[in-house]
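Model: You mentioned two targets. I'll fold them one after the other.
Researcher: Yes, keep them separate.
Model: Target one:
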Amino acid sequence: MQNLAKKVGSGVVKEFSSKDLLDFLEHANDLVQSVTPEGRFLYVNRAWKQTLGYCDKEIKSLNIFDIIADDCQNHCKILFSELMSGKRLDRIEIAFKSKDGRLVYVEGSCNCRFENGIPISTRGIFRDITDKKRAEQEKVLLQKKLERAQFFESLGVMAGGIAHDFNNILMSILGHLELLCIRANYNKDVLTIATKIENSALKAAELTRQMLAFSGAGNAFWEVTDLNLLLEEVEPVLQLMLPENLSLRMEIKQELPSVKIDKSHVCQAIVNLFVNSVEAIGENEGVITVRSGIEVVDSKDFFKDAVVVDNLDTGLYCFIEIEDTGPGIESSIVEKIFEPFYSTKFQGRGLGLSAALGIVRGHKGVVKLYSHPGKGTRVSLFFPTRDNLLEDQR
């Protein structure tokens, strides 16, 4: 392009030159790129390099598909083919991979330049929408967590109501069973049958206790204590439940602040999680680690990956973790394992994890789960410290 100038009144208007165009592109906020039909970069502007972090030398050796996120590869290959056929693409969304591994989401338009019907290069202009995209994802995640919390809340109300009514029926069965034994003058044959009925009723009563624990409606006896003392009390129980192929490792952090809990309920939660770990490892050799610790929560983002997000405050929390060296949990079922009666095992009522979740939520705490296939599972129970609860009441 030639540099041309013409006088307009007393001033001079300079026509846009190649140098002016390059300066314009280099100072644009949007990401500008030009790519050959083979995917080699012909040009990228300053904003492109600053956003994605690649230097000129690296860009020369890159192909366009080297910087496209894995999930977008197939989609972008289709788009690139459409460009080569002459189609203009508007308002497309792509995820680029930056040099440091970050995903950069962009929105923009592309077209292809042709000479004598042959594609010469593509031209793309993109706007960085990463912050907008992440905000949208956070909103969707928060809505999903809210719906999940409401789901568990509804299940808890239903479970609590059923458990109370079922308990009343069981008490009536056990009462009439005792009367039957008295009327039969404790006949041996009657006692044999009555014992079987009583054992079944007591098992059903245990089921209702689990349901009440899930609903958070069980009778609670609150006391101020140290979680380490609780673990010292429950350790012998865990040792008795431990098969020969497994070993138990206790990692106790000294001097934990006090918490206000129902010791029997929290012990039940620990035992339920421990049993789940034992069953997960099965007949393989493995280790189950039970540990305690302190977590200073200075942002509510800490709770965003919890099993159920409640309106919890920041502050000081004590935690108990049960970690196993089992096979881990597939991502497709992670969100289901705390649901009542869900179980991947051939046998089992599927209430152990549900009850543990209900117990912790009843203590204004939170449950976090970390698991990957082949890398075991860690479940963390967070309880607000007594000071944190007092602060919450002020």
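Model: Target two:
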Amino acid sequence: MTLKDVALKIRPMAYAPYSGFKVGAAILSKGGKAFAGVNVENVAYPEGTCAEAGAIAAMVAAGETEIIEAYVVADCPSPVPPCGGCRQKLSEFAGPDVVITLATTDGQEQTYKMSDLLPGVFTLRHMENVK
């Protein structure tokens, strides 16, 4: 099963009672496992949590910490970009050359390197002077 298949299969499970905007994400870890996530909205935070964050949480809970590929899909007119928070989360676990594919449910796809999605990423290197 491809990352695309995983993301498309999990997307309908998103919990989006306020927006109706369901997003599915799948990431491939360095260990060769695929992890899936969906967006989850709630009344206190109607924007909810993002699908990418869910997939990353599942990966970390399984003891893995490195993404080697990711796929994100939603039913929208053009491929859905991750929000700023998810770009930062992805960058924590994906190197600058990791391919992130953004897609629509009707088959449009755009691929980016992580460094293209979040140029100038904040890293631990920026905190080296902290004592």
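Researcher: Noted. Anything on target two?
Model: Residues 3-122 form a domain with the Cytidine Deaminase; domain 2 fold (CATH 3.40.140.10).
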